[in-house]
Amino acid sequence: MNYAPTAQKPKPVVGEGEFKFAAAYFDHGHLYGQINGLTEAGGQLAMIYDEDPERLAKVEKDFPGAKVARSFDEVLESDVHMVAAAAIPNRRGPIGCQVMRAGKDYFTDKCPFTTLEQLADARQVVKETGRKYMVYFSERLHVESAWYVDQLIQDGVIGDIVHMEIFGPHRLSKPNRPDWFFDKEQYGGILTDIASHQFDQFLHYNRCTQGKVVHAIVDNRVNADKPGLEDVGQASLILENGVQCFSRVNWFTPDGMRGWGDGRSFITGTKGVIEIRKYFDFGRSNEGNVILLADGEKDTILHVDGKVGFPFFGQLILDCLNRTEHAMTQEHAFAASQLSLEAQALADANRVS
């Protein structure tokens, strides 16, 4: 279940040894993507840690140049600039606070929190320490078409955004999932988890940090053997600028589909419309990063695979070294999480089954 895109033309932003980071808690394979992004941007994976000895032995083989820490305290006491981690979701907030109190920046897999109380704690620790609590929203940060579309939007190609819809179907692969994946207290719920990607995109493309959840619902439709699992969910939002947003997520990607999920985004503007086919062109080809664009003059298909790269990771490294906020603002990271948690809370209140 490792998700680790690679850039065709990596662009290091620092020299060897200028930015060192540790990778800890390999509970989710997204950590491999976090490591890839940082190392391609010039970061040095200096240390690895995991609580599971068997898993740690595999990680050690994957990253033979990194020192193996025998405890997390050893990581916290090291000279790394950042700790990247993908712990079980309900542990991510407390681990992040540990990292920041140790004087290091934190880069966690999504979802960054499973409760609003964890979010409040992290806000306070950021305020106290001045450290960063960054989030790996891979469906934007590690997808070239998502980057390219942002530039189109900011350049005014489709005018002002009116409405956004983002669909995030995933393949369940139930036999391969760990126990915590089916425990809602540990993973936080489907809107807290998968839909956090989409709340990130809603806010980022609109350059907003405020919004209101007006509808949310979740359910377990066909997985009665896993009562803690939510296999479908949706939410509607209105952002502070009036843009309407709709998120739909589920665990129903069929085995016959060519990829793990047909992730698509639809963006309606006052002057044009965009559709993003992120991972493959459903029913036609394996090519991802396909953008369908129509404006006041024509409609066209843009193929951007291999043409954009993943600028976020270099920006993040420089932000950590220079104490700037170009890759992602702290306000944005927390706002996206807060909206997903509020959506989950509303869905929980609405659930009748």
Explain the overall architecture.
This protein has 353 residues and is an alpha/beta fold. The protein folds into two domains: 1-136, NAD(P)-binding Rossmann-like Domain (Rossmann fold), CATH 3.40.50.720; 143-310 and 341-350, Dihydrodipicolinate Reductase, domain 2 (2-Layer Sandwich). Helix content is 34%, strand content 24%. It has helices at 31-40, 53-62, 72-76, 89-101, 116-129, 138-141, 144-154, 184-187, 190-193, 196-206, 311-322, 330-350, and strands at residues 20-26, 44-49, 67-68, 82-86, 105-109, 133-136, 161-169, 211-219, 232-239, 244-250, 264-269, 273-277, 290-294, 299-303. The longest helix is centred in the last third of the chain and has 21 residues, at 330-350. It starts with 19 loop residues before the first strand and ends with a helix. The model has no long low-confidence stretch (mean pLDDT 96).
